[in-house]
């Protein structure tokens, strides 16, 4: 009797070797029998290193006493199987396949042990990712979990101990947003992840494999595997990685061409960080920015406006590279606002016209009816009336380096006949002996005033305009002043003025008579009055001389 010890070695993902169990059996070691040597089962599986996630196993049934087979993958349970069994969706890592042959009584068949081995046939291999290279240093193949006792091949083995292989994740930038974790358990069971720094990062997904980056800092992840009916809970593993400030960029499209008269425009830009973008004018003589983020661009002059968009970053994001965009501000279109002037009387003489432009530039005026009205002043704003009629004024603005010429605007108004008045002061009272006087009066129109006597028995008018008043008799002389108007002026209201013609003061011219001889008997006297009236004579010395005759 020989005691054989079958030791099953399992190569773990980390390269360590675990003694999974041992089976002691007391069996006679027979190399021959009445039927000759018992040939071993020939087991064939996948390549020792393979990228395929499917593995197929085939074997020969050389021993006629073998009734059935039990198989298991890694540390799973033994189940009935047949040659050609396949396992799919295998995880990357080390795997082991174990085969047990049973006879009709359900005992382990000698053929399963072969002639030279003391353990059931097994096949170990490694599944690698498609882009991974095989480890150049061969690792010991993982051993299967303890085989069922030959006396009770269907019994479940004791729970296995599993370990987690969890490599430190690479450091990340906050701008990456998230990352996916990978870890494996030596059991082949799925590993779960949870964040130990939830203010910096959180996990999501079926097994927490997705890490959401919340802030800059150190993100610590714990990998766990709770085990199952075959495997004990694995020792948790923590790994930390750094989340650095995110790199952000600005998307800023150049505004379309604008005109100066459009006044302003609101610009927009976005940062990949989602933080607000700020704007600044790089051509302040052409355009200026205002608003909470400088998003309102106000036009100053025509030219090229250049705006710089910036995002300074914060605790999670680095400052973005500034982006500049330029657009053209073309000459503005301006308009003139020119209201129709009120109708005027020719008597008013002139008026001042006003107009404004949307550009703020001064408006120039010119008369289109120069026979009726004329313009003067710095910009032609004073309109002088030449006659009654329709006065048409054109308003223009020629533009400048920033503004196009405005469309001219014409406005017309009526100039009616002027209302005139006569200024005629009362003449001073006169003495009849003065004989005549000249009267004067003026009209607000400037036209000459005419005079005529309303008391022809007392006074009479003569001269080109009746301005000479001759005294006919003492009394009240009434003179009427009139102005009949012309094409531009209405007739003035007549004005009358009266003055008194008092009796005249006269003088006598009486030369001394020549001395006479008594013998002459008589003499004739002669004298004249300044009034032209006849002079009468009377003797003041009747004892010497007397007068006689009509006077």
Identify the notable features of this structure and list them briefly.
single chain; 551 residues; mainly beta; five-stranded mixed sheet; four-stranded mixed sheet; disordered N terminus
What's the short version?
By secondary structure, the protein is mostly beta strands. 1% of the residues lie in helices and 39% in strands.
| Number of helical stretches of at least 4 residues | 1
- Secondary structure: helix percent: under 10%
Poorly predicted runs: 1-36, 111-118, 131-154
What is the β-strand count? 48
Radius of gyration: 68 Å
Structure description:
The chain is mainly β. It has a 5-stranded mixed sheet with strand order 4-10-9-6-7. The chain is rod-shaped, with a radius of gyration of 68 Å. The N and C termini lie far apart (216 Å).
What is the secondary structure topology, with strand pairs?
Layout: E1 2-11, E2 17-27, E3 43-44, E4 49-50, E5 55-59, E6 66-73, E7 79-81, E8 85-87, E9 93-103, H1 110-113, E10 122-127, E11 164-165, E12 172-173, E13 178-180, E14 184-185, E15 192-195, E16 201-204, E17 210-213, E18 217-224, E19 237-244, E20 250-251, E21 258-259, E22 264-266, E23 270-271, E24 278-281, E25 287-290, E26 296-299, E27 303-310, E28 323-330, E29 336-337, E30 344-345, E31 350-352, E32 356-357, E33 364-367, E34 373-376, E35 382-385, E36 389-396, E37 409-416, E38 422-423, E39 430-431, E40 436-438, E41 442-443, E42 450-453, E43 459-462, E44 468-471, E45 475-482, E46 495-502, E47 508-509, E48 528-529
Parallel strand pairs: 4-10, 12-19, 21-28, 30-37, 39-46
Antiparallel strand pairs: 1-2, 3-5, 5-8, 6-7, 6-9, 9-10, 11-14, 13-17, 15-18, 16-17, 18-19, 20-23, 22-26, 24-27, 25-26, 27-28, 29-32, 31-35, 33-36, 34-35, 36-37, 38-41, 40-44, 42-45, 43-44, 45-46, 47-48
């Amino acid at each position: 009797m020989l005691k054989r010890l079958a030791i099953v070695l399992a190569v773990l993902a980390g390269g360590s070797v675990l003694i999974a169990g041992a089976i002691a059996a007391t069996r006679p070691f027979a190399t021959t029998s009445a039927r000759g040597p018992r040939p071993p089962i020939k087991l064939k599986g996948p390549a020792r290193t393979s990228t395929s996630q499917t593995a197929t196993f085939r074997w020969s049934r050389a021993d006629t006493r073998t009734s059935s087979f039990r198989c298991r993958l890694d540390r799973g349970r033994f189940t009935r199987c047949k040659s050609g069994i396949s396992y799919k969706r295998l995880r990357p890592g080390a795997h082991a396949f174990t085969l047990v042959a049973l006879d009709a009584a359900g005992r382990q068949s000698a053929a399963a042990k072969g002639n030279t081995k003391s353990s059931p046939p097994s096949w170990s291999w490694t599944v690698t990712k498609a882009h991974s290279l095989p480890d150049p240093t061969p690792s010991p193949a993982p051993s299967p979990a303890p085989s069922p006792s030959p006396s009770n091949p269907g019994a479940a083995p004791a729970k296995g101990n599993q370990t987690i292989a969890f490599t430190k994740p690479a450091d990340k930038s906050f701008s990456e947003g998230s990352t996916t974790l990978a870890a494996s358990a030596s059991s082949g069971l799925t590993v779960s992840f949870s964040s130990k720094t939830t203010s910096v990062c959180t996990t999501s997904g079926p097994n927490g494999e997705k890490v959401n980056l919340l802030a800059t800092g150190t993100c610590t992840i714990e990998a766990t595997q709770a085990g199952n009916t075959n495997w004990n809970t694995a020792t948790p593993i923590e790994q930390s990685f750094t989340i650095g400030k995110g790199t952000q960029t600005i998307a800023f499209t150049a505004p379309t061409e604008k005109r100066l008269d459009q006044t302003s425009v609101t610009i927009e830009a976005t940062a990949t960080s989602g933080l607000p973008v700020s704007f600044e004018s790089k051509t302040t003589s052409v355009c200026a920015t205002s608003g909470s983020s400088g998003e309102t661009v106000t036009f100053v002059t025509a030219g090229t406006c250049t705006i710089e968009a910036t995002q300074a970053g914060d605790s999670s994001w680095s400052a973005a590279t500034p982006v500049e965009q330029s657009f053209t501000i073309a000459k503005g279109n301006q308009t003139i606002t020119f209201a129709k002037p009120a109708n005027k009387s020719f008597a008013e003489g002139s008026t001042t016209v006003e107009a404004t432009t949307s550009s703020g530039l001064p408006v120039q005026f010119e008369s289109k009816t120069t026979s009726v009205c004329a313009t003067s002043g710095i910009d032609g704003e004073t309109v002088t009336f030449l006659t009654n009629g329709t006065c048409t004024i054109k308003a223009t603005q020629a533009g400048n380096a920033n503004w196009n010429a405005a469309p001219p605007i014409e406005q017309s108004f009526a100039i009616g006949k002027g209302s005139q008045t006569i200024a005629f002061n009362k003449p001073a009272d006169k003495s009849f002996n003065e004989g005549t006087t000249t009267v004067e009066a003026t009209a607000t129109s400037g036209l000459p005033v005419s005079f005529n006597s309303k008391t022809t028995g007392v006074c009479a008018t003569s001269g080109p305009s009746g301005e000479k008043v001759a005294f006919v008799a003492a009394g009240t002389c009434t003179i009427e002043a009139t102005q009949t108007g012309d094409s531009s002026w209405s007739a003035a209201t007549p004005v009358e003025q009266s003055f008194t013609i008092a009796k005249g003061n006269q003088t006598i011219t009486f030369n001394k008579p020549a001395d006479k001889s008594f013998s002459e008997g008589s003499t004739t006297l002669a004298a004249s009055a300044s009034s032209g009236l006849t002079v009468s004579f009377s003797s003041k010395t009747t004892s010497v001389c007397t007068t006689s005759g009509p006077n």
